[in-house]
Amino acid sequence: MCRRMSDKFSFSVSATDGRARSGVIHTPRGEIRTPAFMPVGTAATVKAMLPESVRATGADILLGNTYHLMLRPGAERIARLGGLHEFMNWPRPILTDSGGFQVMSLSSLRKLTEEGVTFSSHIDGSKHHLSPETSMEIQRLLGSDIVMAFDECPALPASEEEVAKSMRMSMRWAQRSRDAFGDRPGHALFGIMQGGVTRELREESAEALKAIGFEGYAIGGLAVGEGQEAMFGVLDYAPGFLPEDKPRYLMGVGKPDDIVGAVLRGVDMMDCVLPSRSGRTGQAWTRRGQVNIKNARHADDPRPLDADCTCPACTGYSRAYLHHVFRAGEMISGMLLTWHNLHYFQELMAGLRDAIGRGALAGFVAEFEAMRAQGDIDPL
Ligand SMILES: [Zn+2]
After folding, report:
1. Which of 56, 65, 120, 299 has the greatest CB tally within 10 Å of its CB?
2. What is the value of pTM for the model shown?
3. Which residues act catalytically here (predicted)?
4. Do residues 64 and 42 lie in contact, with contact meaning Cβ atoms separated by under 8 Å?
């Protein structure tokens, strides 16, 4: 029996400009326009935002964190309550990470073996186990549309030998993830390339993943403190090792200039907590760079954060108000700045997609850089 088109997961590239691509990922829960920026909804919420507000900024897909959700409220509970989409009132696509990265960064008393990793919860100290098989099961219970293979992220700094050893175990785990994922029409499993900053290891990892076969491919192990130059150094060749007809996802990126640089190098998807986390700490991202709303220079400034931005923070409020509510610790401060930041990030993605479609990416990037070079508007 034929499956309806809408039941399938697929990706099509509609335009290219240099190595940059624009296209669409089709899923049964809706389309994802690429290059895509995915806001992070760690604990089944993008902090300070209603789901409909996240959608209003232009997001097509959210990221959820397996590690956080398995510990609280628990994957089985979310499954009983109808799955993550229903639970958090976000009917559109969701990507979940495998939990591996956050086990390494957040939990204590880890024991890592070929089988998987046993760890203690950072919340209550309770013991848990994650392996390729349990990670696939948890992500199935959550109901995520794009499931990430379970991998290991070596703690930095690491020797090339350690990176190679870790990468090869991650490739064995990638095969186990593929086997455990099973046949789930409409859902995708992405493999994750590792190999640090060594070209030969990146190529070996990509070949191993392609031999297994995935619906999409992530570039892992970057944006972990190596610096933009080293990251772009890897991105100059790594996306080229991956299949052209599958989405490429750069995990944990990033700042606006990281995003632009990654898109220029052929990346289709990214995620980062930056716009929402910055919004809660008084940092705004605008076309003219970063603005620290805590700064006393804003206290009497009746102008909006960005006169050309159409978000609620910029159309309804002054810098003076944003400064005041931050200083007063009012909740609306994080709400408005998070909305603005997510809006700016999604506008940037829309601009990149449009420019790639018109074959005008070089001009778009030149304008992006020129605006940032101007810096924030002068104080009154
Ligand atoms: Zn705004």
Report:
1. 65
2. 0.97
3. 97 (proton acceptor), 271 (nucleophile)
4. yes
Q: Do the annotations mark residue 216 as ligand-binding?
A: no
Domain boundaries, the chain: 5-272, 282-374
Please check if 101 is assigned to a binding site: yes
Domain 5-272 carries which CATH code? 3.20.20.105
Neighbours of ion ligand 1 (CB under 5 A): 309, 311, 313-314, 340
* Tally of residues, the chain: 380
| CA 283 / ligand 1 centre spacing (Å) | 12
Active site residue 7: no
pLDDT tens column, 173-184? 999 999 999 999
Residue 108: predicted pLDDT = 77
At 237-263, the pLDDT tens digits run 999 999 999 999 999 999 999 999 999
pLDDT (mean) for 187-191: 98
- Active-site residue, selected from the candidate residues 17, 60, 97, 258: 97
CA of 112 to the centre of ligand 1 (A): 44
The one catalytic residue in 17, 271, 301, 306 is 271
* 306 annotated active-site: no
